[in-house]
Amino acid sequence: ALEDLCKTHARVAYVADGVYSTGGMAPVPELLALQDKYGLFLFFDEAHGLSTLGRHGRGLVLETMGGINERTLIVTSLNKGFGASGGAIFLGPRHHAERRKLATRFGGPVTWSQRINTAGLGAIIQSAAIHRSEELPRLQQRLQDNIRLFDQHVASDNSGEPLPIRFVSIGSEENTIFYAKSLLEDGFYTSPIFFPVIAKGRAGLRIMIRANMSTQEIERFAACLNQLRAAHE
Ligand SMILES: *Cc1c(COP(=O)(O)O)cnc(C)c1O
After folding, report:
1. Which DSSP state fits 55?
2. How buried is 173 (Cβ within 10 angstroms: 0-12 exposed, 13-18 middle, 19+ buried)?
3. Residues framing ligand 1 (Cβ under 6 A)
4. Lowest mean pLDDT: which of 4-13, 91-100, 115-124?
5. How many other C-beta atoms can be found within 10 angstroms of the C-beta atom of residue 107?
6. I need a labelling partner for 188 at 20 to 30 A (CA). Which of 7, 25, 180, 218 fits?
7. Average pLDDT in the 167-187 region?
């Protein structure tokens, strides 16, 4: 459908999460192929891809692209995997001067917002230093190990993907809320999601895996969830 639009319209922009917030990821190589062929403009939100994936934590999209280009814009939150606050825009090479001028002129806290406070800036600088160091690949590896361990114990819609978010389909909203409540009583926070975040009748649990979870925690979580599933499906 997108290719048809590219064929019939001079300017087409596609807006997507790189790593989807409810499981899965954008088909980045296919989108880049459309960009090559038709000049498709791409706007990616990498809130969930930053830090968790790619060299220096540059995310799924930039890792796939290699370098940013003039027909792609990437924005991200620094509040998630990055572990600080605020947001960032990937501006690309210095010769994209017009883009830089626009971003600094209109993208800052102008009238209603506030700049990031000094402590917040300190956290960003320190997190950036970790991203440049050998510590980041170690943390990314630990995350991947935990994701793999999770997949060994829990069947989800996203098994096998290198992404930190798993979606466990349940179906009804009522059951989904019941599952989330029971897991909370067991000491685990999961996020129950349903319409309008996702399609009607497709409710389920969104599960966020972290690098600092222990094997025991993941195994205990899996046991709790699997017990619920066995009792209710
Ligand atoms: C959390 C999130 C944001 C917003 O990030 P904040 O920095 O918390 O405002 C944007 N996009 C996606 C996909 C997110 O998950």
Report:
1. G
2. middle
3. 17, 21, 45, 47-48, 77, 79-80, 87
4. 91-100
5. 12
6. 25
7. 95
